[in-house]
Amino acid sequence: MRTALVTGASSGIGHATAVALVAGGFRVIGTSRDPDAIPASALIPDVEYRALDLLDPPAVDAFAAGLGDVDVLVNNAGESQSGPLEELPGDVIERLFRLNVFAPVRLTQLLLPGMRARGYGRVVMVGSMLASFPLAYRSSYVAAKAALKGFATAARGEVAPFGVWITTVEPGAINTGISERRTTYIADDSPHRQRFRTMLDALDRNASTGTPPERVAATIVAAVRSPRPKPLYAVGSRAPLVFALRRLVPRTVAESVTARSHGLRIRD
């Protein structure tokens, strides 16, 4: 039986992925900052819940050392952050990168040697379509997800000869309730306040009618089961159409379309 590790398995995409992997016959270890705080209704039978604070580097190292063999790693846990670039505090940007980039990269580094030695492994980075279609007031989040994809895309060429594949899954607007947990930073007297609020309202509307997390989970499991996973899977937000259009139209047009879909206009 293959063993899969899913970070952030207590809700949203991580929860749905853990459910799908259990149903697929995997032994699943799911992480949460505080497993004891997970509501009983959200607990998944047959998932081994373990505490992990991804913002604590020594804890990440100790956690990986006690795992044993892991065949599949789904780096899902992360923070959604919004705010005008000029008003984002430096410490919150650093925290976001520690959680969304450095921790999953470190966990991947720690598990890759075992996968390589066994001749089999799958690593899935859960990114965001915003990494491919950047949006105003989401610069820190866009940059973090783009960095995660960069690590994955480049490193897959290093480990593929050993039977280990790294891939990125980019969800679009997903109905996970993440809007309630998104961190926002904007000054009371910010000149961006009206446009920022417009963007957030559109973001929340899109998420409320977005793709269910189970569909993203199905994409993740399909990538895990593939004998040769693709570098990138995009799901939700009419992904096949918008990625095709991005290849056909100038980047300035794609930029304007992304902005307009969130109630914003970009001046020429």
UniProtKB/TrEMBL annotation:
Alphabetical list of PROSITE patterns matching this protein: ADH_SHORT (PS00061)
GO cellular component terms, semicolon-separated: membrane
Protein origin, superkingdom: Bacteria
Short name of one Pfam family: adh_short
GO MF terms held by the record: oxidoreductase activity
InterPro entries in the cross-refs: NAD(P)-bd_dom_sf, Sc_DH/Rdtase_CS, SDR_fam
Gene3D superfamilies for the chain: NAD(P)-binding Rossmann-like Domain (3.40.50.720)
Keywords: Oxidoreductase
Entry similarity comment: Belongs to the short-chain dehydrogenases/reductases (SDR) family.
The protein's name: Putative short-chain dehydrogenase/reductase
